[in-house]
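TEACHING EXERCISE
Course module: macromolecular assemblies
Task: Read the component lines below, then compare them to the predicted structure of the full complex.
Student: A.B.
Group: 4
Components provided:
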Amino acid sequence: MGKFWVIFVASILILLPFLCNSFSPDTPTDRRVLVLLDDFAIKSSHSSYFNSLKSRGFDLDFKLADDPKIALQRYGQYLYDALILFCPSIERFGGSIDVAAIIDFVDSGHDLVIAADVNASDLIREVATECGVDFDEDPSAMVIDHTGYSVSETEGDHTLIASDDFIKSDVILGSNKITAPVLFQGIGHSLNPVNSLVLKVLSASPSAYSANPKSKLSTPPSLTGSAISLVSVVQARNNARILISGSLSMFSNRFFRSGVQKAGSTTKHEKSGNEQFLTELSKWVFHERGHLKAVNVKHHKVGETNEPALYRINDELVYSVEVYEWSGSSWEPYVADDVQVQFYMMSPYVLKTLSNDKKGLYSASFKVPDVYGVFQFKVEYQKLGYTSLSLAKQIPVRPYRHNEYERFIPTAYPYYGAAFSTMAGFFIFSFVHLYNK
Amino acid sequence: MAAPETSTAAVPTLHTNNTLRNAFGGVLSFFILLLIGVLAFLIRLFSVIKYESVIHEFDPYFNYRVTQFLTKKGIYDFWNWFDDRTWYPLGRVIGGTVYPGLTLTAGTIWWLLNSLNIPLSVETVCVFTAPIFSAFASWATYLLTKEVKGVGAGLTAATLLAMVPSYISRSVAGSYDNEAVAIFALIFTFSLYIKTLNTGSLFYATLNSIVYFYMVCSWGGYTFIINLIPMHVLLCIVTGRYSSRLYIAYAPLVVLGTLLAALVPVVGFNAVMTSEHFASFLVFIIIHVVAFVYYIKGILSPKMFKVAVTLVVSVGLAVCCAVIAVLIALVASSPTKGWSGRSLSLLDPTYASKYIPIIASVSEHQPPTWPSYFMDINVLAFLVPSGIIACFLPLTDASSFVVLYIATSVYFSGVMVRLMLVLAPAACITSGIALSEAFDVLTRSIKFQLPGVSSGAEVDEGETSSDTTEARNDEVKAEKPEEKSKDRPSKKSKKKEREHVEKPSAKAKVKTKAEKKRLLALPLEASAVSLLLLILLGAFYVVHCVWAAAEAYSAPSIVLTSHTRNGLHVFDDFREAYAWLRHNTDVDDKVASWWDYGYQTTAMANRTVIVDNNTWNNTHIATVGTAMSSPEKAAWEIFHSLDVKYVLVVFGGLIGYPSDDINKFLWMVRIGGGVFPHIKEPDYLRDGQYRIDSQATPTMLNCLMYKLSYYRFVETDGKAYDRVRRTEIGKKYFKLTHFEEVFTTHHWMVRIYKLKPPKNRIRGKTKKSKSKTSSTSSSKRSGTKKNPWL
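Instructor-supplied answer key:
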């Protein structure tokens, strides 16, 4: 009996790494989250946010950022599926974590939430820069808005901003409209406009600028207006998602609960939009929304079912692909009318919108162009907030075989007639010439 | 060996043993021919013995791959083969763009051997196809020269051809290229044409068309035949040598040959549509007009004929002018005047270098240098003129053809090194004739002055047996009536040049007279010395040919060797690199390299390539050339758009291998710039000089080819000294941003790089701050330079 136990335990141990595999394409939800804090007070002062994550099934592991024992991976396996950095002032991480380790963590497909604050350390700035976000380099600068500030506060420097300039995307912010403005107090950042991977989720109003509120303005602020981004998200090419916020306090219970009235506005909201905004955003960041997968790419000739190794020019073919979206617990059919397939050889020869059957199956039927070469079926689906689908399947297209042309062309009959009559005439002529004596 | 026998055979009186001697001569020449064939085969085996049984160079690899396909899939699949592994993503219709002669020949040999239960691999068959066919070629040379000047000249020419270096260079074992079989087909076509011309037999005319068809199947050089034969026919007509034999030799060839040529997919309608073939049709019309005129002349009285001529000529001229005007208009309406680029560069040697860099870039399309003549045909270069003179003694239809052949091929060989190959058979034939004539004269005069003694014995011993045979044959022939003796005696009459004798009786008189004169003219000592010198000349030729076969032309070029103080070094880097690709990359990965290495990559690494040695699409090649001449980022984008995964460059700087990509680079710039004008050649040259040292232009030092070639090169010796360019390179320390090195062969000859995937994230603009002081960070703010307050 004991022997069987040993075998059982051993097999469990062998299977364990596979059982608790990190991010998998089939169940893209992150479950184990490492939260790095400056001090454990944040754990209680920001408990609403953490509780909303816990209630959705996340397993949060709180650690001090300079804890010498923290590590992201052990024996090549990542211990966590996501990382939350609520440690804006940390100069050096404890344990084996550094900028490169965090970047590797992201590059292997894991998610990241960064909250900076005034006096954010160079380390946090560097991580943000690697992700494509440039915080204002003046360490004491904050975002100031003299028209868009929140009037409920008594402080007069207008650094507590009530912003409602959200990105227009149901995928990122959920389908329920966020009515109340979001309170923000912290530093702004700018994005490189050519960077297509990073999105401005919450931007400052046109009257905002970034400067040190305590000192007089000696030089024009480098960041002004709606170029300032308050909260941004990044979706890397491997679909790892990153949330970067210039304010740690916007996650706090105090901001979640406080009411808000925007300067110049008469409506006073009982509750700020922070909770809804950040909860919905965390759903997107942790892949509970907007995560697509494409499976079962198939193509075949019309009237056949087997996939051929190559097509002939002018063949009629059917292309189909199944697209699903992760709902947080299961794969649901993705329904859209803008998925297109290209039949591509250096440039698209056929560009066709796929029709779907509402069950996730997209298909299109078209005729192979009258050009031979090595084509590709390409689906390049890049939609705001969704994971990008990029499918390419190579398929050669051959010309006609020698016996696939028409044997007799009707328009050529005069020539056939001419040829055969000449041959007959010559035969008769030779016969007469030779034997007519 | 043969010398004493021949002399004893020559001693008995002529009439009694005539038949026996003929038979004896026949057997002897048969064995000599057999030995020539063996010689031709064996002299080409140096490459197998010194290296290994391996396919050589570039094009043969493609032919080998096609042959493999043929033996695996059969002829119909070969015909319809659409190859998706080359010219990605365009693909190539192999069946319709390849001359199938060589492939079908080797495929047939393989199939035949296998059905005889001789299980040879396809590669072995391919390796030995060329030597086998060079044996055939020397026999065809024998047939051709025999028709022109008799058996002796034929055997001499065959011996010369069996080991002429020019031909060896293209037909050593492993050199599995079209020329290997095409030269045989070329000579055989000519010999059948001469045979038809001499006999007037329709059987040979038909055979000629079929062999011409084989030639068309084998090589694009068939246009040489279809232009040379019409030229000869025209020459015959102009010099008043029209005969029905000429008509039979020519007309069926044009009709049947053109029909058959149109059957080859790669030629197709070109056989009637391109200017290369117009000459044959024009002459076809002319020969019919001439034949008609001769016919009319036969049935009309001379007076009536004159009237008819004036009538026809005036009408005919008008019609001709009209037709020619239409033709010129038609031809002129096409942009290249109906001529393909390669043909135009034959007529105007500067055409290619002016307009088509892709043709000019190939080294074998360059004009040859004088040393290459000496290297490739050696002493034949000196014998050719005397051979031409011999052809004029007297000028027959057949010998005029040889003169025309040598004249045109000398011109063509002067245009392109590659066409040296066409010159070689002509040189062998004329030299064979010259040598044979000289030996004939000398041995005969010796024998005449030493009656009853086995005269030439001691002189002839070292030399090839064919010479003595030739002398003997000559004697035999001297007694032959009619045809053969018609030209033979007058040929000997060196003093009575260009005497055209119509009647046999007069001829006989001339013959005896001439013989006496000649025999008296040459003293014994002079003959002996000349013989000795000729034999020395021949020996020199043999030594040179063996040396050329063993040393110069046997290197397979994918395996290199070098002799140093430490012994023999073997550089097998190419196969190392291709093997790496085959084992370490995905089957569908695309490999980009300059087109030289395309065939080898598909055949040996079995990976898809972007461009290869079949340079059919100039734009595609220019795209690759542009990528190689661009800076890294632009190059990455070009390659990425072509789905390229790996880039392969050949680099000889470490071991001093001169034909590497850096030396070919200017051609990439030129070809790329020809299509994409933003690549400009002067940007890569410093004061018109191509250099890669510290004086090189920044464009040169930043282009992809430079970077991929010299990446990490400084780590080899610390100085980055390039042994090909004999200089230190200009930029030694640099990093690659868009490519990563994945493999470099043992001697650094082949370097393989992988395109880095697009970055997972895009970094922000902020530089990594080294210091934490706020002063530096504020000075780094964007827009500070425009700020008037700072």
